[in-house]
Amino acid sequence: MRCEVVAVGTELLLGQIVDTNSSWIGEQLALAGIDSLFQTKVGDNFGRIADTLRAALDRSDAVVVCGGLGPTQDDITRDVIASVMGVELVHDDDIEARIRYMFGSRARTMSVNNLRQAQVPLGATTIAQMPGTAPGLVCPMPEGPYEGKVIYAVPGVPSEMREMVAGTVIPDLKRRSGVTSVIKSRTLRTWGQSESGLAEMLEGEIERLDAEPSATIAFLASGIEGIKVRLTAKAATEAECDERLAAEEAIVRDIIGDIVFGVDDETMEHAVVALLAERGLTLAVAESVTGGLIGSRITNVPGASKVFRGGVVAYASEVKFEVLDVPEGPVVTEEAAMAMADGVRRRLGADVGLAVTGVAGPDPQEGLPPGTVFFGLALGDTLEARPVRMPGDRERIRTFSTIGLLDWLRRRLLALD
Amino acid sequence: MRCEVVAVGTELLLGQIVDTNSSWIGEQLALAGIDSLFQTKVGDNFGRIADTLRAALDRSDAVVVCGGLGPTQDDITRDVIASVMGVELVHDDDIEARIRYMFGSRARTMSVNNLRQAQVPLGATTIAQMPGTAPGLVCPMPEGPYEGKVIYAVPGVPSEMREMVAGTVIPDLKRRSGVTSVIKSRTLRTWGQSESGLAEMLEGEIERLDAEPSATIAFLASGIEGIKVRLTAKAATEAECDERLAAEEAIVRDIIGDIVFGVDDETMEHAVVALLAERGLTLAVAESVTGGLIGSRITNVPGASKVFRGGVVAYASEVKFEVLDVPEGPVVTEEAAMAMADGVRRRLGADVGLAVTGVAGPDPQEGLPPGTVFFGLALGDTLEARPVRMPGDRERIRTFSTIGLLDWLRRRLLALD
Fold first, then answer.
1. Which residues of B are less than 8 Å from A225 in CB distance?
2. Is the model's pTM score more than 0.80?
């Protein structure tokens, strides 16, 4: 069973609105085990919407068309569907009554235009869920090239669309397709390996899965936040999916090891805060090049206050000397990084001190090029530093520094086991 | 001239990533006066990508295909384009050198897979901008049904895609299309007014422009970052556009006044850093609820070091007492906010002290509900505080606090004139 998604609206093409509806519908289709091979955005143009629907029906068994069901003149999805079905639009008294009731209950006056929303292609049925004034439609294709196929029309308003898709479209599609299988995904988030490096590490496992497909592995570069390894399983039941995902996750973790810092939505800062809490340790951070980015990310984690004391943003060198007792002299060095970590830990009374100093650019500093960064860590009796070379522009250098430093702490904390 | 956008990636169809690239590209095409009538998402499947590209070339003069240029086996955009062009992939030594250099400069080992990225369809040229390891491609269609048409291939990583589209794709499309009329936009960024409030203020001017259309005004809500007022002008020359935009900007600024904090990409922190530099003042920040967010945003501005001394992230109350000399007692008060601003200014030897303390939630603190926030400002001889109620969740409260506090400083600095 294949179902395409068509999003209607010139504002989508102009980039005035980002089409999040198609993504959400695609996710629901995937979870229902229904393939969605194409998603199309098209403007409010009769001919082009018609062409898009026909192309979709040529390739697939069903189409969810989203948007263009409003009361205004450029809301023409109803009319286009009728023409693709080769039928008339007929007035639906029941919908008119529901629309009138809506307006009544909202104490708004109904315009004549709103009655256009009571027009329905002959043979179509309306979707029971109707949170707004736009009725959704189930349009089975009549005798002809598309017989047996179906178009679902839902409004572009996300909340209305979601209620109709979840309440009627997905159940109807599952019934038509007789699909019983479920598809689920789990994402392992990694730091410290390139996408191609991961691909090589997992080459054997991927080949094994090609032979006996209990799950699939895909890589997603998530910009500066590392590489995601996505595991996907298809099975008869949700429980069986979870089982396969758990088994596959264990295998993959065995292969790529502790470069996995989180699962699905877990960020690096979530991982670090959780590890500190487990070990009953408090943290203080001394930031130069990152300017507060590390603290802001840590404190974005609910419950961070249990482990995070605070930090010193020592941007000017004098602040490093005066507030953190860094010895006067060059401040982009391993020594300075260690002194900052130790100083902030003592000054703020924390168990762990973390520090970063470096050159974000655009200009060099102390004769060092942008991207020259030193990490400092004060943990227990150990005081250590680590030099790093960061790529890219100011923002990339700052973000790489933040995640890289937190990952270093994460590995040190894991080693405490 | 018509240009379609094709986004490649199974994760887009599955809704694991929202395709924001197509929207951004669509906006750039519109601003360049180039029609974009269809945008399609397709998975990592050779046949379906090829069909999609052919359908797009049948309907339009150019296609921007986004994604699938990575080093892994499922990155097949290069291969598909070659087959649509009916040519071979050839190895490009120059790109290999650039990729090797990238890895060298990042001290990461390059895998053999990365060399796939040096494969280029015969007759294609590479895009000069190459911020990552994925080269962009300009692929003119050879003799045949699509002769004279062109495919542009750019990576799915937004930052890389944007640099290539702005730097090469749009200029090349304009040259090919011979578009003479120029469309330009200027965005005035505002803080402190609702969209409907702005619409009311500008109602008269918008009516005037309907009568004599020298420019258009549109409102874009940019989430937590305020409301954008976008001015757009279409004219024969760029100079004429700039003239009209400058004239319209003056009129609009007269009407809405100093709620405009920046133009186009200027952020609130840019505005504040510029004002401080003009007045020769240095800044120190004491952050509690924002955890370093204010410092991180200020230091994201190149040249911030001229005005920003640093800050203290006083997340735990003891840090407020011990490091900032805040009197022991409740810390979510006007008094605490003022003491923090004064303390950080003195401690870090700055001219201006800014402070924020409050409750980000999810739990109440000192009996106060999440969203209770106090700003503190130490400027010259004045020490003042301001209570604020912030809406929304933890992240919104933190971001609203950051921008709200910076905007307060901005207004105070403007008043110094």
1. none
2. no
